Amino acid sequence: xxxxxxxxxxxxxxxxxxxxxxxxxxxxxxxxxxxxxxxxxxxxxxxxxxxxxxxxxxxxxxxxxxxxxxxxxxxxxxxxxxxxxxxxxxxxxxxxxxxxxxxxxxxxxxxxxxxxxxxxxxxxxxxxxxxxxxxxxxxxxxxxxxxxxxxxxxxxxxxxxxxxxxxxxxxxxxxxxxxxxxxxxxxxxxxxxxxxxxxxxxxxxxxxxxxxxxxxxxxxxxxxxxxxxxxxxxxxxxxxxxxxxxxxxxxxxxxxxxxxxxxxxxxxxxxxxxxxxxxxxxxxxxxxxxxxxxxxxxxxxxxxxxxxxxxxxxxxxxxxxxxxxxxxxxxxxxxxxxxxxxxxxxxxxxxxxxxxxxxxxxxxxxxxxxxxxxxxxxxxxxxxxxxxxxxxxxxxxxxxxxxxxxxxxxxxxxxxxxxxxxxxxxxxxxxxxxxxxxxxxxxxxxxxxxxxxx
Length: 454
Ligand SMILES: Cc1ncc(COP(=O)(O)O)c(C=O)c1O
What we know:
Blueprint: H1 15-29, H2 41-48, H3 52-64, E1 68-69, E2 77-78, E3 100-101, H4 114-127, H5 142-156, E4 165-168, H6 171-184, E5 189-194, H7 198-206, E6 210-217, E7 220-221, H8 223-229, E8 233-236, H9 250-263, E9 266-270, E10 294-299, E11 311-314, H10 317-326, H11 332-343, H12 346-372, E12 377-379, E13 386-390, H13 397-406, E14 409-410, E15 412-413, E16 426-430, H14 436-452
Parallel strand pairs: 3-14, 5-6, 5-8, 8-9, 9-10
Antiparallel strand pairs: 1-2, 4-11, 6-7, 10-11, 12-13, 13-16, 15-16
Helix pairs in contact: 1-3, 2-3, 4-11, 5-11, 6-7, 6-10, 12-14, 13-14
The structure holds pyridoxal-5'-phosphate.
Residues 105, 170-172, 197, 237, 242, 270, 272, 299, 301, 306, 311 line the site of pyridoxal-5'-phosphate.
């Protein structure tokens, strides 16, 4: 164990006093935190080239001043404070955990397939080549991109070769790359769905693009209005619009592809949760219709866990060089682990298990809502991990959400995604993170909160 200290005989003060004052200063300025272990007296004496007695004296004094905790046989460590004259670093109050978590678009991470992932990770560490331990191709390892090309073609109808795939730290980081690459190529305006995620608009704006919000209706993005917006690019969620849950209708897909071809604009297809559908047929990726004008983006955040920060984009050839200018690589051991996870069928197995579980939770959610919210219209039930609950016009969406949050119920509302005022009050409720009995309980409590907020 090392500690960044220096002592010298020609400096003012004894060697012991120099050690004491440096440790005191580090504690006061916050670089040595409460509880941090420090080297034993023997170790520190060796590191500094001084006699052990010098360090023993210094530690004894620091312990007497309550800076240090020293116990026979235990690693010395910085005490818990408070410390005299320490810089005030107020800790943020720990957030109270939510009693019921209805936040949408999150998977049940408590079902993360730990054993299968641990096997893949262990094998990845054992097998990774010396070449792959270097920086390598910033677009990702060959194994990951080969496995992805096969997987995406098989389950999503994505048309690609491994060379056009870039592995990213999740979708949102990838979106930043694309937006910057588009801006560097001269793009000025980009469309986002309304309602749609706020992160997307923010990321596009930070890349210097002017963001235009284009409405979504029951058939998906209004492509006629998109045409009128004269944009260079559009970000959309065609397989399962976020958050309304609608599918981009076949005629809208055709119209969108025609528009992209006519204008040279690019669509960024966020295919974040297409794996979860319950009572409708699969919808293939838009990218398969026109790989020259569509960037396909995927992520493990909904199928495994957001913590892995692993995503991918399939690029049109025209964007490969521009994205290469922006990309600096993604953790490579995890890529190899994910390639194993795909090849061994672990992902297919995990998804089969989760689909069954989520379907049961969805059914429970719909039944509970029918009982506790008889006047509401529940939509977006056929796929995904959340539903939308349209309340009677008399309800005040913000007041309902505030009342729910005060009761420890986490949820989203359409207002979190939409810029439009002319819409019914709507709650967006995820059902993936709670057991069926907790869902029933949570919906009952939410109904009580809604009565308060109506
Ligand atoms: C619509 C949508 N797409 C994609 C993502 C995933 O982003 P990431 O891969 O960066 O976790 C999210 C995260 O909540 C999302 O809501």
